[in-house]
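Exercise: predict the fold of this chain.
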Amino acid sequence: DGTSTFTGWSGACTGIGTCSVTMDAAESVTANFTAGNLYSLAVAKSGSGEGTVASSPLGIDCGNTCSAGFAENREVILTATADSISIFTGWSGACTGNETCTVTMSQARSVTASFRWRFTDVTAAYNHSCGVRQDGTAVCWGANEVGQCSAPVGQFTYVSALGHFTCGLKTDSTIACWGANDFGQTNPPTGQFLGVAAGCGHACGIKSDGTIACWGANNYGQLNGVPAGTFLQISAGCLHTCAVKADKSVACWGCNDNGQSTPLAGEFTQVDGGHYFTCGLRSDASVACWGYNGDGQTNPPAGTFAFVSAGSSHTCAIKADSTLACWGRSNHGQSTPPSGTFTKLSAGFDYNCGIRADGTVSCWGTGEVSTGQATPP
């Protein structure tokens, strides 16, 4: 076991290897073990996710048993296993890396295994962020002074936020919203929806028949001029909304003081509203933007893209190779994206969050006021 050392065979076998006996007569064999000094191996777990750590030889099953004594100089192998909505992200202490951990017990040792949640969707707003975990539950981080981080129970497909509230499309196709409600923006209509988009004080959704319904603030005409017809995708800017129609043209309504609600002609597959500008992904996978351009946020780079997200005064996009590109203002580092490949992206107010290929969330940029919105779980 982990508290003793095998020192060898005596009798019909010798040495410390396996013992093979040919039974042509009665034989006897003795296995010799020496009890040495015992040193403690302590395992801790950190991070938002969950998982277990087990040892070979037996002794650690953490879970429940997170420390055990092992014989001096005994080699102990630790294996970490994440649960269904988490990922094991690595060791610290007596081990590093993210493979199995091998510890030689020449003294007392301690090891920490880190686990993080895996996400399927993420949204970045003003001073809070929300995401959908692998099990469909919503979780938020950052400021919560008006309840914008108090996600309700239930299963969600995706979430949307820009101001001080959040809306999410549930797996039963209904909409739930939470946070600030000074304009009724967290009181969505009943019924079945295909999509939802939250602005600064209003929200809009695509109903199951493809038509659009909006609710909340109307001080800039956010609820006026909602176009008729059927739509494929929708996004709310701060004071305006844009949507891709069934014929792949874009329609916008609401505030237009910077041209953010005057879309470019052509076919689009996706559109995203920023604070005072809008960007869209054309059918040829290039990005086009319109509206306020004081910081270069409507000057996208050449190339092909899979997704675009417009923030406060900057824009970020997922390129065709799944890496990121950002442009526009970068006074808080919001236009300096991390390396690696991403599957989802959301540009917020001077910061962004994205989902990496392994399902973990990374955020960059500090935001105008740091409330933890760029520190994902």
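Check your answer against the key: The chain has a mean pLDDT of 95.
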